[in-house]
Each structure stands twice: as structure tokens, then as C-alpha cells.
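Last lecture ended with a question: if I hand you only a sequence, what can you say about the shape of the protein? Today we answer it with a concrete record. The protein is Class E sortase. Below, first the input exactly as provided, then the predicted structure, then a couple of comments.
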Amino acid sequence: MRAPGIVHHGTRRRRAAYRRAVWSGAEVLVTAGVVLLLLVVHQLWWTNRQARHDAAREVQALEREWKAPGAADAPSTDPGEGGNGGEGDGGDDSGGAQNPSSRERQTTVNSAQSGPRWSQAYAILTVPRLSLRVPVAEGVSKPNVLNKGYVGHYKGTQQPGQAGNFALAGHRNTHGEPFRYINRLRRGDTITVETKTALYTYVVDKTLPQTSARDSGVIHSVPRSTVRPSYGYSEPGYYITLTTCTPEYTSKYRLAVWGKLRSMRPR
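The predicted structure:
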């Protein structure tokens, strides 16, 4: 018969092993938690800080490059004024009211002939409502463009001021998140695009709140959703498109904001 109160060595060893296993498991969980926390901080804070800093420096570099001492400002021209153009407020789906002058068309042609190199920042996008001012680079590569806090120009779409669709992409979250709040844009808000040769002013016209990530129609020359055909245009014009992911912190769907060219001013 076993005496009461006596604990055998085997029992003590099992209990000690159990305590060591629990302690080791707790250490692993704490370490994993710290690593995950650091990853979250890196993604949500550090990448934004670094990308915004780099994007601001690139904007300053472009401004210095374009600065021309003593150059006079050219008068602004509204594509909807004079000739056979109508009102420039984008009241219907037609872009035909936007007919740049021959001088403006020549400015655009000259700019297009010396197109930007891949991943090169060559323009500055400004959205006053969002207090946004970021560089525009050629292409939508994540490591070479978007993750730098830049806005990327879709290959195959038009350049600023050209007839068709000047289509852009930008991160909604992390890496500077330049397009985080484009859902706040409203009809009539202005968007400006500066290049070495001209300043282009677009006016926000329509928003597509959500569509498939594969809805390529939103960046066509005449933008119209292939998933939700009631959103978009039916006539050629001078358009700008801003695209980003939605909802926030996911990449499941796309959000698009469209605008129409209102004026061009040669530098």
C-alpha cells in the first residue's frame, strides 16, 4: 500500500517537464506577438513615413528641375471656351466640349514625343481637397513606383492633356497611401497635373465606388465599367482616372474617380 503524501520522482519530473513546456510555449507566443506588432508598425507607420518623405523630396526635385528664372506665366485657356465647344462643367457623358487650341495640342504632342522612362517620375499630381501633392511615375510597379509613395501611370493610357484617358493608380493604405481618401472627392473638385511643359487642370465628374479588380474598362480611352456599365462615359473626351483598392486594408475591389480636362496652361 502506497504511503500518503509521498510524491515519486517520476511524477515530479513529469510536472517539471509540463511547466517547462508551458513556459516555452508562452515565450514563443509572446515572441510571435512582438514580431507581429513590429510588422504592423512597420507597415502602417514606417512605410508611410518613409514613402511620404521620399515622395516629397521627388516633388521638390522636379520643381527645381523645371524652374525657369524669368519665365512668364502663360494665360490659362479653357477648352470649353469659344469655337464649337460647350460648357466645361461635364453636365453629360460627352467629352466633346473639350477642344484644346492648336497651341495646346502642339504642347501636348511635343511632351508626348519625349515620353518618360519606365518608373521615372515626370509629373506632379495635386488634389487640393485632399491636401495631396505627389509625383507621378511611369508604370504601376509596386517596388519601383507605388511603394515609393508615388502615383503610377498605367502603360497604354494617354499622357496628361492628350485626348483619351490619363489613368493613374495609387496605394490606399501603407507606403504613403496617397489615394487613401479619394472616396471623399466630389463632383467639381479640381485635380491638377504639372509637367515640364504645361499645367493641366481636371475637374472631378464621376465616382465608381466599387468594381472588380479586373475591370479594365475603367481605364479605357473612353472609360466605362465592364462590370457596372451604368458607370462611365460613351463619348471620346479628355479624361483623368484615379484608381485604388477598396475597402481599406484589402485589395479585393477597385474604386475609381473620373474627371474631365478643363484647361491647359503651357509653362
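Comments.
1. The longest strand covers residues 198-212.
2. The helical segments are 9-66, 102-113.
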